[in-house]
Structures are given as structure tokens and as C-alpha cells.
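Workshop exercise sheet. Pairs work together: one partner reads the sequence aloud, the other fills in the structure field after running the prediction. Swap roles for the next sheet.
Pair: D.N. / O.F.
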Amino acid sequence: MKIALDPHMLRKGPLLELPALVAELGFEYIELSPRDDFIPFFKHPRVDDGTVRRFRKALDAAGVKISSVLPLFRWSGPDEDERQAAVRYWKRAIQITADLGVDSMISEFNGRPEDPSRSEGQFWRSIEELLPVFERESIKLTLEPHPDDFIEEGYEAINMIRGINHPLVSYLYCAPHTFHHGNDAPGLIKHAGDLLTHVHLADTFDHTASSGLRYIINPPGSTARIHQHLDIGQGEVDFDALFGALRDNDFDGTLTSCVFAWEDRARESSLFMRKKIDEYLSTWK
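Structure field:
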């Protein structure tokens, strides 16, 4: 099993210093999420080949590896020009991942929930063009449903991935999205079976609780989605049930600490999350 850190809260520090910092925080793996100087959100990658080589050397020097590269592009959006641009961005991101010696990428379905049929059509156009590139580079792709994507619910996402019917494509369960996915981690984990290869770990509040007023959004009736990525224990996710289901499913993939809420205490949060993950895993023995 791989225990990784999503270094989003550390993204403002120099890229080449990131591996040593992650090692200092007790992690052997980085899940490399978007950063402005590498692969930004929804834009063409900014990193050049020389920096990729220097980053790889920094990883080796720190004894840290990249578990996965996580880009986010609008590859399922209803705008065709934007979709084609996203596919171009994907191809460069796949090349960067291969040059880093990494065999895994993670992303989201994207698209628009108010236009799911067109978004799904756009997704299939993109995935059919990109799968040969993943095959050529022997890179696996793990997908997660996300709030405000054209697929948000967990069972629907698993069935969609099963329908892709490709050995390189698998499913990611994201704990801080629990209450958008249907609040049934054990059921989703069982339904996914061997398709489940990655889990994002962070806590959140149940936005549906207290008559939908756990969080308050103005104006009333807004279609905005809301959640948070908190330290374990700060929200309402049932981590006993989650880790129990992972154990029962013989999970042996990647667990990623994925907290975003505490940039002012990123070090303390990361150390805490590593400790909590180890505590949960110790109960499997």
C-alpha cells in the first residue's frame, strides 16, 4: 500500500524543495496535484523538460516517489473548442508523467451537471482519443466523481468506469465528497471491488444535515456545491466504517492525505494526518 500526501497546501513553495519537505513530514509518496508552475488548473502545463529532469533528481535525493499526477482539464465540457484544447493539455501532461517515471494519473469527470447528456458525449470523445496515449505510455488512469461534474454520485461513477471497460482505468473514492456521493462508503467500496485503486482522505461536514443548513449558502436555492477537506475528526465522515470497508475489500492501493483547509498550519495538519492514517491501518493487523 502507498501512503501519499497531496501537497496542495504547500504549493506556494519552490517545486524543487517539495520532495525534501514531504519526506520531512513522514510521507514516501506525493500525489502531485495542480500547481501554477507545473500543471495548473485547466491550463496547458507550464513545466519544461529541464525542470522535469531536475524535479526527478530532487525526488531521488529525498527518497520520495510520485504515486500519481493529478491534472484537471475541461475534457467533458459542452464547448468543443475547449474540449479539444483540454485533450491537447492532457497529451502534454501524460508525456510529463511518463518522463517522471510515473505510471499513474488521477482526474475528474468534469463536464456540467445541468447538461449531462452532452457532457457524457464529450467525455467519450476525449477518452477514446486519449486511451491510446495512456496505452502507449503504460500509464493508468483513475477517475473520481466530483461535486459539480456531470457525474457526482458514486454508484453512477463506478458503473461509468466499468462501462469504459479498460484495464488501465479505475475508480477513486474521495472521503470528503462522501455526502455528495450518496453517504454510503461501505456500499460503494463493495460495489467497486477491484476497480477501487485510490482513496482520498479528509473529513467534511454533512451538508444535507440539519435540514440542509449545516452549511448556509446565499442566495437560498443556489445550485452551488459545498464541501471541505478537513483533518480527520473535524467533520462527520465515518472513518471507522470507511477503513473497515477498505479492509474487508482487501484494499492495497494508494491512500492520500488530501486536506486543503489549513494552509496556515499545513505542516501540523500533514503530520497529524500521517499519524491518523497509521493508527487506522494498525487495526488491520
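Discussion prompt: Residues 116-137 form the longest helix (22 residues). What would you look at next?
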